[in-house]
């Protein structure tokens, strides 16, 4: 007999389908509700992507109850402001969580790692199980990219990481590359629930005419990057590759928001790049339209060994949309793209190589189309969100 539970998710950057950002948790939550579970989410009222405020303090979405905790709202300004935002959510989400009744599992997700403290504390207060999810290796990524430099903060952050791993009743990871690091730091029960996508949200046969028309992209070979514009995303390399492209029919589109976007736009103006278009973030339920307007899609991160462990969400959305992936990330995600035959690899940090790969796909649109459809098929067979929730439900119900 299936066990019916009340699952409480603590997630500052939670995004529902009508918001920009990754919707892994909203999709999983809705599917868990369909299985009969009750799911409550405590989230920030400030979009982590755009910085815009959500007015509702309490809402229902697909049967999921979403409670919004007050936070310090200037997380885009600097590292210190971001830490203040994280700590404010840690405290306010704990206070709201105390009022959520009859909880069986508290699900904390990192980063930011501080909300893991909230999830652990609420689980202990309520006598519930503590599920800790690792979506990025924090603080390792922050140290590698140069955001976290203070030796004292590094020591404290690493202690907190080990504390949470050791006290979690279950750890789940979204990439196989995280398994070794989390177990070496004290995690005992570790299961992989990889990133993926819902293929029903995307139509690989949509040519994206509306998106192209509205953004002056008709008759262009559109290379789209969709996602955060931050330090880790290495989009200056994309701008440099645009400067090197000598085909006026190729247009690079950078869709999204983030701390570095204004600087990137200024750099593009200084470089007189007419083959780069900047577009604002779109809601997840509008992402299918944007991806349909692309001929190929870029996934890129800084050339750091730490990033070889990641399964970026955007790659799975690209595959679900049936678009070939231009992958400037090495490691475990490269193995997925290679196995699917759905894209081309470009050495991270190398603008010359990136420009060459873009040209190669633009010159053979039939091949690009075949790659995209291979990616769609591979995702349906291996990374469909509905199939992944079956494994997640098994872990939770167990």
Question: In summary, what is this structure?
Answer:
With 398 residues, this protein is an alpha/beta fold. 41% of the residues lie in helices and 17% in strands.
Full CATH superfamily name of the largest domain = Glycogen Phosphorylase B
Report the order of strands and helices: EHEEEHEHEHHEHEHEHEHEHEHEHEHHH
- What radius of gyration results from the CA coordinates? 21 Å
Mean pLDDT, all residues: 91
Strand arrangement, major sheet: 3-4-2-1-5-6-7-8
Shape: globular
Helix content: 40-55%
Domain count, please report it.
2
Structure description:
This protein has 398 residues and is an alpha/beta fold. The chain has two domains: 6-194 and 384-397, Rossmann fold, CATH 3.40.50.2000; 199-382, Rossmann fold, CATH 3.40.50. It is 41% helix and 17% strand. The protein contains 15 helices and 14 strands. The protein has helices at residues 24-34, 79-98, 114-126, 140-145, 151-167, 179-184, 209-214, 235-244, 261-270, 287-292, 313-320, 332-340, 351-362, 365-382, 385-397; strands at residues 6-10, 38-43, 58-61, 64-68, 105-110, 129-134, 170-173, 190-192, 221-226, 250-255, 276-279, 296-300, 325-328, 343-345. The protein has an eight-stranded mixed beta sheet with strand order 3-4-2-1-5-6-7-8. Strands 11-10-9-12-13-14 form a six-stranded parallel beta sheet, with helices on both faces. The longest helix is centred in the N-terminal third of the chain and has 20 residues, at 79-98. The chain is globular.
């Amino acid at each position: 007999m299936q066990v019916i539970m009340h699952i409480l998710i603590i997630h500052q950057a939670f995004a529902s389908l009508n918001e920009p950002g990754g919707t892994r948790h909203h999709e999983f939550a809705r599917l868990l509700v369909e299985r009969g579970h009750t799911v409550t989410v405590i989230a920030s009222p400030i979009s982590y992507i755009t910085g815009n405020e959500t007015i509702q303090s309490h809402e229902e979405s697909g049967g999921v109850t979403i409670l919004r905790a007050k936070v310090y709202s200037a997380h885009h300004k600097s590292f210190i402001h971001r830490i203040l935002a994280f700590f404010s959510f840690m405290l306010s989400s704990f206070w709201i969580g105390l009022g959520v009744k009859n909880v069986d599992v508290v699900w904390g997700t990192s980063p930011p790692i501080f909300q893991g403290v909230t999830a652990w504390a609420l689980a202990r207060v309520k006598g519930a199980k503590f599920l800790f999810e690792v979506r990025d290796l924090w603080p390792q990524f922050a140290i590698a990219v140069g955001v976290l430099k203070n030796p004292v903060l590094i020591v404290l952050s690493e202690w907190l990481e080990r504390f949470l791993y050791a006290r979690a009743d279950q750890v789940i990871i979204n990439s196989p590359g995280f398994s070794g690091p989390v177990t070496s730091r004290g995690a005992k029960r570790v299961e992989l629930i990889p990133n993926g996508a819902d293929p029903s949200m995307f139509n690989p046969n949509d040519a994206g005419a509306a998106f192209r028309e509205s953004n002056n992209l008709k008759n262009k070979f559109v290379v789209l990057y969709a996602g955060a514009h931050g330090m880790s995303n290495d989009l200056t390399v994309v701008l440099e590759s645009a400067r090197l492209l000598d085909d006026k029919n190729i247009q690079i589109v950078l869709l999204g928001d983030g701390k570095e976007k204004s600087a990137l736009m200024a750099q593009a103006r200084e470089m007189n790049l007419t083959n780069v278009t900047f577009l604002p973030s779109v809601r997840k339920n509008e992402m299918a339209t944007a991806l349909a307007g692309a001929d190929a899609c870029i996934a890129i991160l800084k050339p750091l060994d730490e990033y070889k462990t990641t399964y970026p969400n955007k790659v799975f959305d690209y595959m679900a949309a049936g678009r070939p992936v231009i992958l400037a990330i090495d490691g475990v995600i490269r193995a997925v793209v290679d196995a699917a035959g759905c894209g081309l690899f470009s050495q991270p940090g190398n603008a010359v190589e990136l420009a060459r790969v873009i040209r190669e796909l633009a010159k053979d649109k039939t091949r690009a189309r075949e790659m995209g459809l291979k990616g769609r098929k591979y995702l349906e067979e291996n990374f469909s969100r509905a199939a992944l929730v079956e494994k997640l439900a098994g872990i939770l119900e167990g």
